């Protein structure tokens, strides 16, 4: 890209930020000053993590932390490859899955190209690709707050470099039934690439639900992203990965910037072996969601049954105002997701945090 083009794109991107009334929320949570007294139900974190085993692995990793991590990245990639039944060449280990999203956005960005995505959804790849000249076709979610796959299909052009799918979706918590996402991804694979963000995959309990790794194994144009930030509770450690056909994985790998580090690799590796903590995380999450559903039912509020570690509900109050009111009582809730500006995303958190949310929302909406 030449200087003039770069300047034009960068100006347009900063202009878009100013026009977006929620741009501050896109970067961070403006009401979060890091105070430990705040109940943080705004980031879909898992406050039960890291597990004891992951913590011990991090401590032990300091003995080798003077080394560059290359060989250890290989070891973790091999372990992940065996978990998913793919080759090591299919795995790209990243500094949080967000790095995988950004690097993919960068790899496939092209002046005049576009990405088709549901709206609302997780923005990390889309925001990044936009900075590098891509147009984003936002396809509104359907009445059930799920992906409108037909609508997305219609938006695909011969300049569509990627189709972004978030399954389960953030912030709606909905899933795409496996047969539908399979046939959608297969049908578009000849024309473009399906990127399936599976950050919340581990939380799905729906019978017959499958991840999309199988499509990668079938050599389709499909990229899957996964993270250690959610069920494994390692969001602050920064580690995730992509699963893609080796030729696609190679292209993305060359665009990584931060990559990862030895303590993160060791924590991730220990977390993969810690089935007890994995099950514990999932059961605390289900418990938290049931508590939230009960509180919302008592208040007569509309919500979607969620397949993630958060619940999206209609508070009926402007989300910026709701955020301020909840924050004044010590609870941080999720950011605005236009056009659902009177809906709120609430993460599950620890039992006592969810209890505090339930009593606070009752007071605030009274
Ligand atoms: C759908 C989705 N994908 C990716 C991420 C990024 O996760 P991380 O970079 O911590 O792996 C998040 C974070 O909340 C998310 O909601």
DSSP helix fraction: 40-55%
Tally of separate domains:
2
Query: What proportion of the residues form beta strands (DSSP E)?
Result: 5-15%
Q: Which CATH architecture of the largest domain?
A: 3-Layer(aba) Sandwich
Question: Briefly, what is this?
Answer:
The chain is α/β, with parallel strands linked by helices and 366 residues long.
Describe the structure.
With 366 residues, the protein is of the alpha/beta class. The protein folds into two domains: 31-49 and 276-365, Aspartate Aminotransferase, domain 1, CATH 3.90.1150.10; 53-273, Type I PLP-dependent aspartate aminotransferase-like (Major domain) (Aspartate Aminotransferase, domain 2), CATH 3.40.640. 44% of the residues lie in helices and 14% in strands. It has 14 helices and eleven strands. The strands form three sheets. A seven-stranded mixed beta sheet has the order 2-8-7-6-5-3-4, with helices on both faces. The protein has a two-stranded parallel ribbon with strand order 1-10. The chain has a two-stranded antiparallel ribbon with strand order 9-11. Helix 6 links the parallel strand 3 (114-119) and strand 4 (135-140). The radius of gyration is 20 Å and the shape is globular. Bound molecules: pyridoxal-5'-phosphate. Pyridoxal-5'-phosphate binds at residues 44, 96-98, 122, 166, 170, 197, 199, 227, 229, 235, 240.
